[in-house]
Amino acid sequence: MFKLKPIGLILCGGRSTRMQGPAKALLDFGGEPLLQRIRARIAPQTSRILLNLGTETEEYDHFGLPICYDLKPDRGPLMGLASAFKLSGGKQDIALCPCDAPFVPPGLVAEQIYLLDVKNADVVCPRYKGQLQPTFALWHHRTAERVISAATQEGIGGLRALYSELALAILDWPDEDPDPFFNINDPDDLSLALRYLENEE
After folding, report:
1. Which tens digit of pLDDT belongs to each residue from 103-139?
2. Cross-strand pairs, 128
3. Cα(68)–Cα(70) distance, rounded to whole angstroms?
């Protein structure tokens, strides 16, 4: 039976306060916006891409991507996932990716899709060097109702808060250089990531 690839949800709802400049997704990264690089890496593994934003803005219009605004702003990444499930009707799995992760593995979502099916899991979360990476997880659409309730009614903001009550599968990711789950949180991180990019090229 044919199954749709998951929706790719790029989480852009953070405040980027430590960057002291533009939103992280809009940073110039090797001659292109950081968001464009991440989009290119996950788009082939997904059926479509959604952007999750906390509040309305026109800054992202030129990317031509559908935008999923938080149902309630400033509530954390679980609200972003809940908002995407609500917008999409809760009929499709959702693969998360933060907007500040330039080295997200191009094959990550495909590996998660396989494990979601084999393990009959609700969530597949990568683990790297012993650390879970919840903002890169794949969520089965059957979790939609629970996610929406937790985010909008119970005020739960963190993704892993629901792991204990769901069927969780862990995807251990092999060591790579640079760290495939590296996040750009401040100017020093950006400088380091650009050095990694130079070595990549």
Report:
1. 999 999 999 999 999 999 999 999 999 999 999 999 9
2. 131, 173
3. 7
Q: Which residues contact 94 (CB under 8 A, 6 or more apart)?
A: 6, 7, 8, 9, 81, 84, 85, 88, 138, 139, 141
Short-list 136, 72, 77, 65, CA closest to 101: 136
Give residue 55's pLDDT band: very low, low, confident or very high (50, 70, 90): confident
Q: How many CB atoms lie within 10 A of CB 63?
A: 17
User: Which one-letter amino acid corresponds to residue 128?
Assistant: Y
Residue with tokens 């950081």: 34
Q: Is 188 left (phi over 0), alpha (psi -120 to 50) or beta?
A: alpha
Q: What are the beta bridge partners of residue 48?
A: 7
Each residue's pLDDT tens digit, 77-110:
999 999 999 999 999 999 999 999 999 999 999 9
